[in-house]
């Protein structure tokens, strides 16, 4: 029994010494360059964006003051294309594509290039389970929204808080 415990402890130390850690545990969340954010034209991304900004310690405000960065959603497109057909010519799979672009502005000036994310998921299709597939599709879209927002906010941590003046 003691040998098993000792072996387990050695394996645990070996894993931690190589840098292994569970997702979301042990890594510090980078901070955003601005504490206060105003969201413009965010549409369906409103709730995931509020949650993600809150996770990074940011505050969402209603007014744009001098120390507030503006998150402006410039593109949000959803496409549902045929991914594959069955041998009899009916749809067997759809390809869901989400394109999201956002621009960060401070004092009326753009902070770098727009941040763009393109996500794709496949959705199998069956005429027998239409209601279940509709729910699955809605859940896939929500998951894609959450994933897109996570990627965008993670990229926002690399924005420099100083504005480069264009000549």
CATH topology: Double Stranded RNA Binding Domain
Radius of gyration: 22 Å
Biggest sheet details: 6 strands, mixed
Summed up, the domain count is 1
Low-confidence regions? 163-167
DSSP strand (E) fraction?
Answer: 25-35%
Shape: flat
Specify the helix fraction band. 25-40%
Count of strand segments: 6
* H/E element order: HEHEEEEEH
Tell me what you see in this structure.
- With 167 residues, this protein is an alpha/beta fold.
- It has a single domain (30-156), classed as Lipoprotein like domain (Double Stranded RNA Binding Domain).
- It has three helices and six strands; from the N terminus they run H-E-H-E-E-E-E-E-H.
- The protein has helices spanning 2-17, 46-55, 130-156, and strands at 36-40, 59-60, 68-85, 91-106, 109-110, 115-124.
- Strands 1, 2, 3, 4, 5 and 6 form a six-stranded mixed sheet that branches.
- Helix 2 crosses helix 3 (130-156).
- Residues 163-167 have low confidence and may be disordered.
């Amino acid at each position: 029994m003691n040998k098993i415990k000792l072996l387990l402890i050695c394996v645990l130390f070996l894993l931690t010494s190589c840098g292994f850690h569970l997702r979301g545990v042990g890594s510090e969340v980078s901070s955003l360059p601005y504490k206060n954010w105003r969201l413009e034209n965010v549409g369906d991304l409103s709730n995931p964006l509020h949650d993600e900004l809150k996770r990074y310690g940011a505050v969402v405000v209603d007014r744009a003051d001098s120390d507030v960065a503006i998150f402006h959603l410039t593109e949000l497109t959803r496409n549902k294309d045929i991914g594959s057909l069955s041998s009899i010519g009916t749809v067997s799979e759809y390809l869901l594509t989400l394109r999201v672009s956002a621009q960060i502005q401070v004092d009326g000036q753009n902070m770098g290039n727009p941040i763009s994310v393109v996500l794709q998921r496949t959705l199998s299709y069956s005429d027998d389970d239409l209601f279940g597939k509709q729910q699955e599709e809605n859940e896939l879209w929500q998951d894609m929204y959450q994933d897109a927002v996570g990627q965008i906010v993670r990229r926002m941590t690399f924005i420099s808080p100083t504005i480069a003046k264009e000549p």
